[in-house]
Design brief:
Blueprint: E1 2-5, H1 12-22, E2 26-29, H2 36-39, E3 49-52, E4 55-58, H3 60-71, H4 81-110, H5 120-138, H6 152-166, H7 174-184, H8 187-193
Parallel strand pairs: 1-2
Antiparallel strand pairs: 1-3, 3-4
Helix pairs in contact: 1-3, 1-6, 1-8, 4-5, 4-6, 6-7
Length: about 200
């Protein structure tokens, strides 16, 4: 059985959601970052951490891709052109959606106050808005990023869109608003967020 460490108010939500999608049993320890539970398996104290067969796996993207590959669901086959497109979307989301949101969070509450630059958020919001247009142009015709199939990048994007709303980053693209509503209706998403 897997064990996931982290709260749903962190990137651990991504891993919890993937485990719910897979329908595989897991233990959830809702420990915050830098807690004793987190630092005991990740010296950086970051969450999420997935324990699989006694091995700690860190980083939410690594965790959800590992789970998708291991269970053969919600991912395209390694070495295929579809997988290359999926990985490209994953990297785009990490660079253009996750990174600006994380930088804004760092300058809001993570860094020591003397190192925070609140004005940086204006440029991050501009970058985030611009990236929305690029993503919409790259989206497939189906309800999900890869078309008809729900895959790893859908978890990343949906989590980032929710994070954006709570961080007051505007979502201006109607297609992304509709997409988010569709994906958040998935039963596994609902179960994960109820934790």
């Amino acid at each position: 059985m897997y064990k996931i460490i982290g709260t749903v108010k962190s990137r651990a939500a991504r891993a919890i959601w993937m485990l719910e999608e897979l329908g595989t049993p897991y233990e959830h320890l809702a420990a915050p970052p830098r807690s004793a539970e987190a630092t005991s398996v990740n010296p950086a104290g970051k969450v999420p951490v997935l324990i699989a067969e006694g091995i700690a796996i860190t980083d939410s993207t690594a965790i959800i891709q590992f789970l998708a590959d291991r269970h053969g669901q919600f991912t395209k086959p390694a070495g295929s052109l579809d997988r290359a497109r999926q990985d490209s979307l994953t990297q785009f989301l990490l660079d253009e959606f996750d990174a600006p949101l994380w930088t804004a969070a760092r300058h809001s509450f993570v860094l020591p106050e003397t190192l925070r630059l609140p004005a940086i958020k204006d440029s991050l919001k501009w970058e985030f808005e611009r990236s929305q247009k690029t993503l919409v142009a790259r989206m497939g015709a189906g309800p999900y990023l890869m078309g008809e199939d729900f895959t790893v990048p859908d978890i990343l994007l949906t989590h980032c869109l929710g994070w954006a709303l709570s961080a007051q980053f505007p979502i201006n693209e109607d297609r992304l608003k509709a997409y988010s509503k569709t994906v958040r209706a998935r039963p596994a998403y609902q179960r994960a967020m109820a934790r």
